[in-house]
């Protein structure tokens, strides 16, 4: 019987390939670097590089690239061939350990947010052995060996998303291992690892139609378009039967992703017509981030082969659902077990509840940073628009777990809600509901049985940013709890009693972050304001969270981002936001002037001599006037906030024109056509 997938991981220079192709001591050394995070022995680099080159050339590769994740949010590569002249008129091939370990792309055009002046613009890429190298085929089939790297300035300052991600994982590991020791778990040098399963939503639109939509081509979303007549009202698309052309695409997508070792698992139709989702099986966080970046690269390339454009934008179409990325996060302890599973004895329960309470502290203290970590021009269309979680960050624990938290708060005291009080480390937790029964889809940060799901990420965002924040704030909360408990135990208190009183105090201080109700209601926004929870509606509201003393202290204390590195992120994200809105504004004005206003003028001319349609002509004329004025206002607007208002106003008159101008004169494919795949 066949119980494997042919070709899985075929394009990856992973452990099995390394074991087969490296000498035993070299393999043992690199495996130790990967597993225990120990320092890379530069002495093995030449052998590894040579083996990589041999393997890559067998797969048809002629070039290699250091593959990195600059602060643009996408991935970057610069190719070098393996060739060297032999000085006899021919060439030999080679790939040295030095070339594997370090690269120096001419990187002056990547955003540095002020970290580098142009005269010192050099950036270095450095091999990250914890992510396996892989082969990438371009659209014409040429193969390139991709070596995952970090990207730093000459002084070691991080210019990418991966460096702080790895740092944050190390910090979380340190504090998790420390917490484990309090519970008698000591696994020597073995690290704890955060795990991630990123659910990815996307749209598929007919490529030929997209070719006629300069707004989608230039900005990834529609800037105009009256709503489709039939969209998601009937809820008939969600989990519906997958149409053959889409099914063929999905089959190829899975096959390609499997070759990259991406464990693609689930595929289905989403809420909106033309909207879909792919979810992998969870993996160690940094690998899962790499794999999500690869997935985002593979999606559009594979879609094009099937005549589709794959839109990863958070809000390609107004008035129907946009796309997000659910970030399923847990901690695998040094013992290899998922520490977000409640466990089945009082001791494990106590560890589990400690982690839940630490998350309450982390998220409540840094709700503003969580919001900032998912801020983008595209995501602003979703958060708070009743299709995605609100911009207010809160935690859903479900009724039962909330009740347990309340009982711990009351523990030792005589009374609680139903008279119960749980003594940590002594009492067994009641059975928690498993599976899908107790899920609240409106919560931004929900406990779902064995993990937390952060649901506010945009479909187009690298998951790195949100997880850098999550890892670091949880590490800080673990640090706090460990410090308090260790001190109490030191001074003679019994461990369970010490833990009990520390957690009770943390719960008291941070329980305002818990909310199990409907996050889409106005009542919740009022209640959240009363509780003092931040409601940072737009990117411009959210990004200043990166500039607070609290944020600087957090990231510098744990060595995840220096003050300068943090400041550079703020600068880049703000500039990116302004630039994107500027491009949208210019594109909207351009399309209105050169395509849509002329269509309205033609329609008015055609109708002018027909008295029966005089009413329509008059309506078109007044909308046309509004559109012309709208363009003028948009072109005069300079600040993003003003540009957004002007775009919306212009869109209102243009969309009203689309509803009455003869469709054969209207140059843009309609929402009805676009959403029908
Ligand atoms: P749903 O759409 O119901 O939220 P999915 O099955 O689409 O669920 O996605 C759930 C994701 O959570 C998957 O990627 C899954 O692998 C991931 N997941 C499960 N357990 C863990 C864990 N311990 N750590 C991280 N992610 C996990
Ligand atoms: Mg989910």
**Averaged pLDDT, please?**
92
Rg: 27 Å
- Can you count the beta strands? 18
Segments where pLDDT lies below 50 for 5+ residues? 413-417
SSE class: alpha+beta
Give every kind of bound small molecule, once each.
Answer: adenosine-5'-diphosphate, magnesium ion
Give the amount of beta strand, in percent.
Answer: 5-15%
Distance between the termini: 37 Å
Which of globular, elongated, flat, extended, rod-shaped describes the shape?
A: globular
Give me the number of helical elements.
21
Largest sheet: 9 strands, mixed
Q: What is the helical fraction, as a range of percent?
A: 40-55%
Describe the protein in words.
Among the domains are: 12-160, Ubiquitin-like (UB roll), CATH 3.10.20; 175-183 and 335-535, no CATH class; 577-674, Four Helix Bundle (Hemerythrin (Met), subunit A). 45% of the residues lie in helices and 14% in strands. It is built from 21 helices and 18 strands. It is globular. 48% of the residues are buried. Adenosine-5'-diphosphate is lined by residues 195-197, 199, 266, 279-282, 326, 328-330, 338, 450-451.
């Amino acid at each position: 019987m066949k119980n494997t997938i042919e070709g899985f991981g075929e394009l990856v220079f992973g452990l099995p390939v390394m074991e087969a192709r490296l000498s035993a001591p070299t393999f043992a050394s690199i495996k130790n670097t990967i597993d225990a995070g120990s320092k890379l022995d530069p002495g093995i680099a030449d052998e590894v590089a040579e083996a990589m080159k041999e393997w890559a050339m067998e797969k048809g590769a002629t070039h290699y690239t250091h593959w990195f994740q600059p602060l643009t949010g996408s991935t970057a590569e610069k190719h070098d061939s393996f060739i060297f002249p032999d000085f006899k008129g021919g060439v030999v091939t080679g790939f040295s350990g030095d070339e594997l370990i370090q690269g120096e792309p001419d990187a002056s055009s990547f955003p540095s947010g002020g970290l580098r002046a142009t005269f010192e613009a050099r950036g270095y890429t450095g091999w990250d052995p914890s992510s396996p190298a892989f082969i990438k085929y371009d659209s014409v089939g040429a193969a390139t060996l991709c070596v995952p790297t970090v990207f730093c300035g000459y002084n070691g300052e991080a210019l990418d998303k991966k460096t702080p991600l790895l740092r944050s994982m190390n910090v979380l590991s340190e504090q998790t291992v420390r917490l484990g020791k309090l519970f008698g778990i000591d696994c020597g040098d073995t690290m704890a690892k955060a795990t991630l399963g990123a659910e990815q939503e996307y749209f598929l639109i007919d490529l030929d139609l997209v070719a006629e939509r300069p707004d989608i081509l230039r900005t990834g979303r529609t800037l105009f378009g009256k709503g489709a007549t039939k969209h998601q009202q009937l809820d008939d698309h969600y989990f519906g039967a997958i149409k053959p052309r889409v099914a063929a695409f999905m089959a190829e997508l899975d096959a390609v992703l499997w070759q990259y070792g991406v464990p693609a698992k689930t595929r289905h139709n989403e809420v909106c017509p033309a909207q879909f989702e792919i979810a992998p099986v969870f993996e160690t966080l940094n690998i899962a981030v790499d794999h999500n970046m690869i997935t985002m690269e593979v999606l559009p390339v594979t879609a094009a082969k099937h005549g589709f454009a794959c839109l990863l934008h958070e809000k390609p179409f107004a008035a129907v659902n946009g796309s997000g990325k659910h970030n399923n996060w847990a901690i695998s302890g040094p013992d290899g077990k998922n520490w977000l599973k409640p466990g089945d004895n009082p001791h494990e329960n106590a560890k589990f509840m400690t982690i839940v309470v630490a998350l309450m502290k982390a998220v409540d203290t840094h709700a503003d940073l969580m919001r900032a970590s998912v801020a983008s021009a595209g995501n602003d269309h979703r958060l708070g628009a009743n299709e995605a979680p609100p911009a207010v960050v809160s935690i859903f624990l479900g009724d039962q777990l909330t009740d347990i938290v309340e009982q711990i708060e009351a523990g030792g005291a005589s009374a609680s809600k139903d008279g119960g009080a749980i003594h940590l480390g002594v009492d067994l937790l009641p059975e928690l509901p498993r599976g899908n029964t107790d899920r609240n889809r409106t919560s931004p940060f929900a406990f779902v049985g064995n993990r937390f799901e952060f649901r506010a990420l945009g479909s187009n965002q690298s998951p790195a940013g949100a997880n850098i924040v999550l890892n670091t704030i949880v590490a800080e909360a673990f640090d706090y709890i460990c410090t308090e408990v260790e001190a109490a135990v030191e001074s003679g208190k019994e461990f369970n009693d010490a833990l009990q009183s520390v957690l009770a105090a943390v719960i008291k201080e941070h329980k305002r972050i818990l909310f199990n109700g409907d996050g889409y209601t106005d009542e919740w926004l009022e209640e959240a304001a009363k509780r003092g929870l931040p409601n940072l509606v737009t990117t411009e509201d959210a990004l200043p969270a990166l500039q607070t003393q609290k944020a600087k202290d957090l990231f510098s204390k744990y060595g995840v981002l220096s003050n300068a590195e943090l400041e550079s992120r703020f600068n880049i994200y703000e500039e990116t936001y302004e630039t994107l809105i500027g491009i949208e504004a210019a594109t909207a004005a351009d399309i209105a002037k050169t395509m849509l206003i002329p269509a309205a003028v033609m329609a008015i001319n055609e109708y002018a001599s027909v008295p029966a349609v005089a009413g329509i002509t008059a309506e078109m004329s007044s909308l046309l006037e509004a559109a012309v004025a709208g363009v003028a206002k948009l072109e005069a607007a300079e600040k993003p906030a003003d540009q957004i208002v002007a775009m919306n106003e212009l869109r209102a008159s243009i969309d009203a024109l689309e509803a009455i101008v003869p469709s054969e004169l209207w140059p843009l494919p309609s929402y009805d056509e676009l959403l029908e795949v």
